[in-house]
Amino acid sequence: MFVRGAKGPPAMLKNVGFREIIFSVNCFIAVAIALFIAFRLNFTNPWWAMIMVYLTSQPLSGTLRAKAIYRILGTLIGGIAMLVIIPNLVDAPELAAAAVILWVALCVYASVLDRTPGAYALAVAGFTAALVGFPTVLDPDSVFDIAIARMEEITLGTLSAALVHSLIFPRSAVSAFLAKQAVLITDTRRWISDGLAQAPTPAIEREQRRIAADVTELATLALAFPYDTAAQRPNRAAMRALDEQLVAMLPRLSGIEDRIAALRRYGSLPDEVAKLIAEISRWFAQPQIGIEAQDFRRAGAAIVSATGPQSGWADLLTVSLVVRLDELIDAWQRCLELSKLAGHPLAVGSHRLRTIFAPRAAKPLHRDHGIAALSALTAAFAMTVGTVFWIATAWPNGDEAVGFVAVACSLFAALDDPSLGMLKFIIGTVGSVPIVAIYQFGILPAIDGYTALMISLAPALLPIGIVMAIPKYASMGLALAFGFSVQLAIQPTYSADMATFLNSSIAVVLGFTVGVAVTRLIRALGAQTAARRLLRAGREDLADLADGNISPTRAEWTSRMLDRVGLLLPRMRQAAPRDVDPQTADALHDLRTGINLIDLKQVAESLTERGRKTMMRVLTGAAGHFRSFARGRQQTLSTDFLRDIDVLIGDILVLGSGSDRTKGLAAIVGLRRDLYPDAPPYIPSPLPVQA
Fold it and tell me: Where in the chain is the domain with CATH 1.20.120?
């Protein structure tokens, strides 16, 4: 029952511990409960309850219960939809089939677009409708019985899994969150210290991207808090605030590293600034070392106030560096305070923290309408192919095959290449055939009664559950559980025959095979294509930001771009180096540029009329550059655009000593470095000659 790979079962067994065994035992107990109730209530297909246990089970109790709620909700929506659609198209089976296909496609589109946990309910609503709708297209009178039976069986299996995993050695999502948070704080502290102490290296850049992915994972875990089994749960608003502060660290340190590198390049890093950077680096490396933020701010304010219309490029780089260092320290202090609240959810925190984690809008996430539409088209075309084959051949199990096409296209639609997940289910189904055949024709005919049935199922189900509990092999374990349960198709009374068994197995394999074939034809992207789409989306947003088509806050922009960084990291690992240019595949760079544009636009009202006109030219030029870049037309930035940026620097320098001047200088210097990293230093305009 173990999946043999290059290292074989012994390598897998090294990952088996208490948690994996408990997970498997819990799944088996849930199956036993579900089948017992299904037999007592004389359900038509108890095996549906059995497979739902495995499709619902998750290692963390919070994510499991959330998935259970969404599965039940999606099942009810899909079943009710068919109770509305099928009776109204009773005289037109072709239209009924088309309506089912359209419903599934719409659900696939919505589930891919919605990247919250609620997307699962949409996917379930789609394939549940297919499993109810296609068997009733030619027999509409049975739609009510099938819909009710399917909803009962799915709900029973889902509730059984949720109940058992919540009561027997549950693993809290809150505990996983706190453990992940502690590791993330430690990693971030080390990364910042290294970034301040040495020049950027590929290792530090990889650490940046990995931390971005960890922040995204932390935010995902926090979504399960309302459903978790923990007695005390962290304040969700505080955790959202911590998420915002952590993601804000990345562009700030990225900008700091760039300014330090530029100052060292020109050999003009002031001694007092270099000393201060070293102190801050030691502070991050060794938490017991104290640092007086107010002393630093006074020193920074003195550096900023010393700049004037004739300040040179090194002075401006220093100002930008000081501003970002100030922001970095403030954000890190907030991170430390907020992280303490996670372990003490009843603590209210300081007044300053309460204002930070005041109610806020949902975290912005990256959404790709093109991929969502393509996924819906793939599902619709695959189901159409399956339906035509079913009707043309008059195959009795054709409706099952089309139903499994819908299952395949719904469950894996969010993957870059859904066909890979479908192939695992084909392998799991085919690999289960010999085992299921032994059960169907050798073991089940010889047993009598519920107790004997469960004892006989244990040798197969317990190893499958262990495989599911190991993250590396979880998808194959689920495929085995699916193939075993669907083909065994336990009924209230034994009635198996070879023809039914083979037809059922062929229906599953053919359904997923059609899904694979159509997906490979229409939908499969590959890691490099997905990475390019993510980068293109970021550059399109930069263009819209410069144009004024969107006006996100700093926090909103940072959250959306960090979400893209988290999505980009695994894809860049999969893509060959030649497929994604490391010089351009840096969403963190785009994140930093967007923050500079946001800060720059906020000081526009303080500028003179000439300054506002110059800023408009700068923003227009930036929008055109990023839009061309997003569309694959890389072009060399003109010297006229650089001249406009330098003129705008001069306009900001004469604003005075207010906060707008400081913010504007940090932003425009950052934008110049982002767009023209190798340009000659800025040279201030000469003072007019007095007559």
Answer: 173-227+236-356
